[in-house]
Write a structure and sequence with these properties.
74% of the residues lie in helices and 0% in strands. The chain has 141 residues and is an all-alpha fold. The protein has one domain. The radius of gyration is 19 Å and the shape is globular. The two termini are 32 Å apart.
């Protein structure tokens, strides 16, 4: 489980860094069905690209810790899930987006439970001593 958590978290980190750089470099021209007009939309896209790049760097930091920083992984996965919630609100308000956004939404719904599960497994694996036993004490007989 440790390898899977580390691998999936590193993959997420590198993907977010790459996506962030992509959005900073291309702005709204890099987003399907966004059009190529509007300084405000372009500014917003590049700003969120920088935020996404930073988000990816935090994923990388959490994944490279020994042991993996499961608390950070849970927070990052929760934030990722909030992205899916935001997309759902957008669908409710404005209707269906470009198909690629639906693929991203599916990923944002599917992956957070996997990270939560892997983080819980990692916590169980690394827990030692009395705190690992329900009730806080080891049996003495």
């Amino acid at each position: 489980m440790t390898a899977a958590l580390k691998w999936l978290s590193l993959l997420m980190g590198y993907a977010c860094v790459a996506i962030g750089i992509f959005h900073i470099a291309l702005g709204i021209d890099g987003i399907p069905d966004m059009g190529s007009d509007g300084a405000t939309a372009d500014s917003q896209t590049r700003f969120f690209g920088a935020i996404f790049l930073g988000y990816g760097l935090v994923w990388l930091r959490a994944a490279r810790r020994d042991p993996v920083d499961t608390t950070a992984i849970r927070w990052l996965a929760g934030i990722f899930a909030l992205g899916a919630f935001g997309r759902a609100v957008s669908i409710a308000v404005h209707g269906w987006p470009h198909w690629f956004q639906l693929v991203l939404t599916a990923i944002e719904v599917a992956l957070p439970p996997v990270w939560f599960w892997l983080a819980a497994a990692e916590d169980r694996r690394t827990r030692t001593g009395p705190a690992a036993v329900p009730g806080g004490a080891l049996p003495t007989h």
